[in-house]
User: Fold this.
Amino acid sequence: MPLIYAWWAENPQFLIMHDNAPAHKAQATSEWIKEHFRDDTFIQWPPRSPDLNPIEHVWSWMKNWIEKNYPQRPTGLRLKEVVYKAWDAVPDDYIQRVTASITQRLQRVREADGGWSGY
Assistant:
């Protein structure tokens, strides 16, 4: 069972959001989502919306950490283990800084008339 589904099954009061990345729009992904979630579970985003979700910065940090600490790309169960290690390695102050930057990110989106803001 994918991690997000396991989490949501225990927290159904929350809505789930994902961007319009090709992996999220793939037919297999869309079919899996329709099979496992209600239609009102996901927040709908316009196709070219600026990404203001702080988690994207955390994913990037984790990706860089994995590449630095595991030059041989892990796969399968090893990858899952490494992702958990990367998540545990994310510094709390980094998450706080990224979250606290929402005001600046929103201002940059306003200045870009809703387009790409550099974040």
Helices lie at 3-10, 22-25, 27-36, 55-69, 76-89, 92-100, 102-111. The mean pLDDT is 81. The two ends are 32 Å apart (CA to CA).
